């Protein structure tokens, strides 16, 4: 048996919102950092309806001064291995 991790999009979104607030940043601040024309992508991240791309995840971790693992939330499912 081994555990296959899966990304928990809702929890990841909560992490992004919590880390943003802890850093004292607004959604508008993140929008400006990423150069987005609108804040929709950030709201989707925070609501767990979309995930940042890997390059955006790296930037988020740098902006929040944390590891990517602190932004990304995962869950695991036990899987059997047939031989």
- The N- to C-terminal Cα distance equals 12 Å
The main sheet orders its strands as 1-2
State the major sheet. Answer: 2 strands, antiparallel
Write down how many β-strands occur, each being a DSSP E stretch of 2 or more residues.
Answer: 2
Structural class: alpha+beta
Q: What is the arithmetic mean of pLDDT? A: 92
Coarse shape: elongated
Helix percentage:
40-55%
Encode the helix/strand succession as letters. Answer: EHHHHHE
Number of helices in the DSSP assignment: 5
Describe the structure concisely for a colleague.
With 83 residues, this protein is of the alpha+beta class.
Index terms:
two-stranded antiparallel ribbon; 83 residues; alpha+beta; 5 helices; 2 strands; 54% helix
Model description:
- It is a single chain.
- With 83 residues, the protein is an alpha+beta fold.
- It contains five helices and two strands; from the N terminus they run βαααααβ.
- The chain has helices at residues 9-22, 27-34, 40-47, 54-64, 68-71; strands at 2-7, 74-79.
- Strands 1-2 form a two-stranded antiparallel sheet.
- It is elongated and about 45 Å long.
